[in-house]
Amino acid sequence: MATPTYEILALRYATIQDRTQAECLLFPDDHAAPMPIDFFVFAIRGGGKTIMVDTGFDKASADRRGRSLIRSPELLLGDAGVDCGAVENVVLTHMHWDHAGGIKFFPNAKFHLQDKEMEYCTGRCMCENVLRRPFDAEHVVDAVRALYTDRVIFHAGSGDEVAPGVTLHWIGGHSKGIMAVRVPTTRGWVVLAGDTSHYWANIRRRNPFPIVVNVEEMLAGYKTLESLADGPDHVIPGHDPLILKKFPQLNGNPEIVRIDQPPIA
């Protein structure tokens, strides 16, 4: 039986324009050079269903961290025709606040999470402020509540399917249990790297993002991402503003692009 292909949407819900290279590259060329960062959720559509990759964050989370939303993720998904209440599966690539801050947007979904990530964000490492800063206790509690209502599916390592052909791959590096998602599309195998590579500059220049638990794992992860994808433009980073410039818009919406389609730039 042939592997099905899927449509993939990248939806930008927030941005920080005054970010610098020093905040985005472990070894910046120019510490003060601008390097804006965008925030995305990804929707995989096929067979009449939608699989979400990460949830984004809500207004309360944004307010706590002094961030602003372009448009709340659940409203942006509605613009794309995605009913959050009908979503059955959400992949949480990791539990950082900007990726797991919208669990409540998906009241009927099951959440896919690596064992290592839940152990990390609820274990002794969170005694250290520097390690817990990317997490939000409220979001972790939301995940635990989902667990206690049979709505968390745990994964250990790589290769598990979320849907036919859509597989999860543990990478590590940025967070202990972070994973990427491999998706078959009409243009080949696309890998949603999430924060295993925030920007194309991270993976292509082998210059990691500076929020990192294990640099060795992160660098090894770049090789894994490349081996899973059909080419450099098939590895989709988690926060790169170039995403909106490289791929065609969905119905003229400047915040939503089709990354299952060939690049236009």
Radius of gyration (Å): 17 Å
- CATH topology-level fold name: Metallo-beta-lactamase, Chain A
Strand order of the largest sheet: 6-5-4-3-2-1-13-12
Total number of helical segments?
8
CATH class: Alpha Beta
The description of the largest β-sheet is: 8 strands, mixed
Runs in which pLDDT lies below 50 for 5 or more consecutive residues are: none
CATH architecture: 4-Layer Sandwich
What's the average pLDDT? 98
> Considering the protein shown, what is the CATH homologous superfamily?
Ribonuclease Z/Hydroxyacylglutathione hydrolase-like
Q: How many E-type strands?
A: 13
Strand content: 25-35%
Structural class: alpha/beta
Tell me the series of helices and strands, N- to C-terminal.
EEEHHEEHHHEEEEEHHEHEE
Tell me the quaternary state: single chain
What global shape is seen?
A: globular
Cα separation of the termini: 34 Å
Number of domains: 1
* Helicity range: 10-25%
